[in-house]
Amino acid sequence: MGSNEHHPLHIFLFPFLGHGHIIPTIDMAKLLAEKVVKATVITTPLNAPFICKAISKAKTSDENVIHIQTMDFPSAPVGLPHGCENTDSISSVDMFQPFIMATALLQEPFEKLLLDQRPHCIVADMFFPWTTDSGTKFGIPRLVFHGISFSSLCAISCVALYDDVSSDHSDSPFVIPNFPGEIEISRMHAGPFMKRKANADHYRKVLGRKARHVGPLSLRNENSQEKANRGKEASRITA
């Protein structure tokens, strides 16, 4: 092996099988590839064409293209119809739990990919907690990807700390305990994002969570046509 041979950092990115999770993961893969990092997106066969189309315009060199690895989705063992590989294909609420069970069955083929390719790091969606065990098994660090903001993470964590709040299933608005700015949950979409730095500091320093900013990932799409082609055709908004 030559001493000058270049071995780029190789990262596995494993998004949950829904467009709201896949799209920001693709944006992250593009950013990594631009930084001369080998990025491999892990998915299933029916999701691969969508991902391939989304990354086709990525500005990366020939040596650092974004790779895609697929694993067969175990729909039959959990009683799902063939082709049910994305949340868009879930036609009833009763199908969601089997869908989650099927994603857990991806652990074995995922570990085979780890054994074969030995990436330096795993960035896996929050819906795949078992990837922590998989990474530990092969000595590979695993980072959790939350596609939501620090504001939302703070709100979820603060509510979970108080039994009297988390157990209240009424529709009445309430002030989130210990939340920066004392924002009412009914106004969560209106105010807290103006204090993103405060929420980030609260999440890390007060709640004691290790976390890093990686977004907004959508800002890396400078090309207006690339932005227009994001998501499902029926939900696209063009200016």
From TrEMBL:
Identify its protein family: Belongs to the UDP-glycosyltransferase family.
Q: Where is this region: Disordered?
A: 215-239
Instruction: Kindly state which keywords UniProt assigns to this record, in alphabetical order.
Output: Glycosyltransferase, Transferase
A GO term, aspect molecular function: UDP-glucosyltransferase activity
- Composition-biased stretches (Basic and acidic residues): 223-239
Name under which the protein is recorded: Uncharacterized protein
Domain of life of the organism encoding this protein = Eukaryota
